[in-house]
From TrEMBL:
Its cofactor is NADP(+). Keywords: Lyase, NADP, Nodulation. This is GDP-mannose 4,6-dehydratase. It is an enzyme of class 4 (lyase). SUPFAM superfamilies: NAD(P)-binding Rossmann-fold domains. The lineage of its organism: Bacteria, Pseudomonadati, Pseudomonadota, Alphaproteobacteria, Rhodospirillales. Its EC number is 4.2.1.47. It catalyses: GDP-alpha-D-mannose = GDP-4-dehydro-alpha-D-rhamnose + H2O. GO terms for biological process: 'de novo' GDP-L-fucose biosynthetic process. Signal peptide: none annotated. It comes from the Bacteria. Residues 7-336 form the NAD(P)-binding domain. GO terms for molecular function: GDP-mannose 4,6-dehydratase activity; NADP+ binding. PANTHER family: GDP-MANNOSE 4,6 DEHYDRATASE (PTHR43715:SF1), GDP-MANNOSE 4,6-DEHYDRATASE (PTHR43715).
Length: 353
């Protein structure tokens, strides 16, 4: 039988947990990394089984992508056939506050993993996936954005990921590694981190509906993104590594919406229509019936350099990988609002009790 052993850095993140679940379903043995400091492991708790159980196939190891020796030791121990590098300081705005750390984890972290493969002479047995991003496109050069569109990073996060993109290409060309980049556009879901804009909105809509919050403060409402469902995207990551030849692929929906549209749709799911008043920093979103201010712009959420719009062309992934996104935008928003109504409802119930 062919050995199928996956090593996932950042398994406690949104994508890591969904990917682990997908691969376990496909019969893989899955090894994921978490940090000693990870305070939140809720996304993988349901996958965990006591490693003493005979048929356990999911294992968690402590690791940090800023620590080469622990990566080398772990990869030597696990001897993975597929390595998915998802670990990153993944928040664009936070990268302006912690640029050096972000470069270390999101840039050099990738180099450390590629070097581990080389040092351990696993070039012929281990395939490597790098979590590249639509943020690489940054300042608009072409719409829609595809594999051949020039990059123009607009944040320390994107600049670090640019290094990772190219070092992955370089190790593929220099050492014949099966190393690929997935250039993924924004993908979301009920387990998305709470400070990313979609989850911030759906949590707030739930909290406002349940009387736990009065107002939602946001930054740039004009930003436009190509938002897909994370569940669909982890399937694409896996498909990328099943190809005979390593390559780079855009995964996107090919549809774009503004932050403002996301807000309107999220409130629609709780039967509230929003009207807009003012402009720029003075813009407010009002309940169309009562006039109550539900959304307000707070400049603290503006970024020093913004990525105004991202729209992906996933044709190559469709043709070569047979991959397409499956979740309509409206359905994604509905699923996130419904999930947050349940989550916030439970929190309220516990607090009240
Ligand atoms: P999350 O922020 O949800 O998860 C990131 C994971 O990386 C967490 O498990 C985190 O652990 C871990 N991590 C952070 N720093 C380190 C470190 N120094 N060493 C080891 N682990 C670390 O991100 P997503 O799941 O959304 O994204 C996964 C990857 O895909 C990231 O690399 C992201 O940049 C990239 N990406 C994401 C897109 C998206 O729309 N979601 C789109 C394109 C790319 P901890 O809990 O300890 O912080
Ligand atoms: P992004 O996602 O920067 O695209 O990076 P995020 O959800 O943080 O921002 C999307 C857009 O919304 C605007 N925005 C706000 N953003 C946040 N977080 N909070 C706010 O209050 C707010 N108000 C408006 C932003 O300015 C931006 O234009 C995500 C991450 O997952 C990256 O790791 C990944 O690489 C890219 O997606 C693709």
């Amino acid at each position: 039988m062919v050995r199928k052993v996956a090593f996932i850095t950042g398994v406690t993140g949104q994508d890591g947990a969904l990917l682990a679940e997908l691969l376990l379903g496909k019969g893989y043995e899955v090894h994921g990394t978490k940090r000693r400091s990870s305070s939140f492991t809720g996304r993988v708790d349901h996958l965990y089984v006591d490693p003493h159980v005979e048929d356990a196939r999911f294992f968690i190891h402590y690791a940090d992508v800023t620590d080469s020796t622990n990566l080398i030791r772990l990869i030597q121990e696990v001897q993975p056939t597929e390595i998915y590098n998802l670990a990153a300081q993944s928040h664009v705005q936070v990268s302006f506050e912690t640029p050096e750390y972000t470069a270390n984890a999101d840039g050099i972290g990738t180099l450390r993993l590629l070097e581990a493969i080389r040092i351990l002479k696993l070039e012929d047995t281990a395939r490597f996936y790098q979590a590249s991003t639509s943020e690489l496109y940054g300042k608009v050069q072409e719409i829609p954005q595809k594999e051949t569109t020039p990059f123009y990073p607009r944040s320390p996060y994107a600049a670090a990921k640019l290094y990772s993109f190219w070092i992955t290409v370089n190790y593929r060309e220099a050492y014949g590694m099966h190393a690929s980049n997935g250039i993924l556009f924004n993908h979301e879901g009920p387990t998305r981190g709470e400070t990313f804009v979609t989850r911030k909105i759906t949590r707030a809509v739930a909290a406002i509906t349940l009387g736990k919050q009065k107002r939602l403060y946001l930054g740039n409402l004009d930003a436009k993104r190509d938002w897909g469902n994370a569940r669909d995207y982890v399937e694409g990551m896996w498909r990328i590594l099943q190809q005979e030849t390593p390559d780079d692929y855009v995964l996107a929906t090919g549809e774009m919406h503004s932050v403002r549209e996301f807000i309107e749709l999220a409130f629609q799911h709780v039967d509230r229509a929003i009207t807009w008043r003012g402009e720029g920093v003075d813009e407010q979103g009002l309940d169309a019936k009562t006039g109550e201010v539900l959304v307000e712009v707070d400049p603290r959420y503006f970024r020093p350099t913004e990525v105004e719009l991202l729209l992906g062309d996933p044709s190559k992934a469709r043709e070569k990988l047979g991959w397409t996104h499956k979740t309509p935008f409206r359905e994604l928003v509905r699923e996130m609002v419904a999930s947050d109504l349940a989550v916030v409802g439970q929190e309220k119930w516990r607090n009240d009790a």
